[in-house]
TrEMBL record:
The keyword Ion transport does not apply. InterPro entries: AB_hydrolase, AB_hydrolase_1, AB_hydrolase_fold. SUPFAM superfamilies: alpha/beta-Hydrolases. The lineage of its organism: Bacteria, Bacillati, Actinomycetota, Actinomycetes, Kitasatosporales. Residues 44-273 form the AB hydrolase-1 domain. It comes from the Bacteria. This is Alpha/beta fold hydrolase. Keywords: Hydrolase. Gene3D superfamilies: alpha/beta hydrolase.
Length: 290
């Protein structure tokens, strides 16, 4: 196992995601790229990313908000962004890689925030390695076999085409509603993603994106898991109009998890936690520190 920094960290603890250095750690034959910020004490919160998401795709308001009180760790899983290896074609393999990364950092207990595909990965981790996870935040995601999840590939292709035709970012369509509020929130979110100008991550390769789509499709076709075995406290959050992972999946998760609470944001889509980042950060911190 090796650890290296791509740049020096000087002074006090890093408090801004925009300035968090990209580090690497090698374990299990993979060199993982990651960033961390916030206080060193307490249980760290590991963020698990969405489809086609690299380090620079996390909303800095959400990361900085959580990192004001908790150590936050974001990373590129195998084959994603600056991490080496080939991207798995199953959610289960992604979960194994995530556990390898977490343990490589010497962490024995973490909280996890999984957004979209990351929330699917988180559900597997908490079942395969329950002792590793203290609390779970699942946003914009759904259970194995959840309604409409197998349609993510078609929806992603359609909205990517629509974005190209209108010279927009696909996330404007995939993450946000087409109402005035949704359009404005999308533009603000996309502007925040550009705040970091130095040491930006590598973009996702087409093969990695294709493999992730296959993994999500398979997740959507799986038989439902027995979620009653997950005893950890879980916060489930989403917008009320999620097209990618239909919002009823969030209600389904909250109903089937023994120790869950549900937050639904109005006039919001898949990226509801980014549109309502202030409210989400406040709720998430209260949940994590309770």
């Amino acid at each position: 196992m090796t650890v290296s920094d791509s740049q020096e960290v000087r002074g006090d603890v890093v408090t801004s995601y925009k300035n968090a250095p990209t580090r690497t750690i090698t374990a299990g034959g993979v060199t993982f790229a990651y960033r961390e910020l916030g206080p060193r004490s307490g249980v760290p919160v590991v963020f698990l990313n969405h489809l086609y998401g690299v380090l620079d795709n996390w909303d800095p308001r959400v990361v900085d908000g959580i990192a004001a009180k908790r150590r936050v760790i974001t990373f590129d899983n195998r084959g994603v962004g600056a991490s080496t290896g080939s991207t798995p074609r199953t959610i289960q393999e992604m979960a194994k890689d995530a556990v390898t990364f977490i343990r490589a950092l010497g962490l024995e207990r973490v909280d996890i925030h999984g957004f979209s595909m990351g929330g699917m990965v988180a559900q597997v981790i908490v079942q395969t390695d329950p002792q590793l996870v203290r609390k779970l935040i699942l946003s914009g995601t759904g259970p194995a076999g959840g309604e409409g999840i197998k349609n993510v590939t078609v929806l992603s292709h359609l909205d990517t085409a629509r974005a190209l035709l209108t010279f927009q970012d696909p996330k404007q369509f995939l993450f946000f509603t087409r109402t005035a509020n949704g359009r404005r929130a999308g533009k603000e979110f996309l502007a925040r993603l550009k705040e970091r100008t130095a040491d930006r991550d590598k973009t996702m390769s087409p093969i990695a994106y294709s493999n992730q789509l296959k993994a999500i499709h398979r997740w959507g076709l799986e038989k439902p898991h027995d979620l009653s075995v997950i005893q950890q406290p879980v916060l489930v959050a989403n917008g009320d109009s999620d097209r990618m992972v239909p919002s009823k999946n969030s209600a389904d998760l909250a109903r089937r998890l023994p120790n869950a609470e549900l937050v639904i944001y109005p006039d919001a889509g898949h990226g509801g936690v980014f549109q309502f980042h202030r409210q989400f950060v406040e709720t998430a911190l209260e949940f994590l520190e309770r």
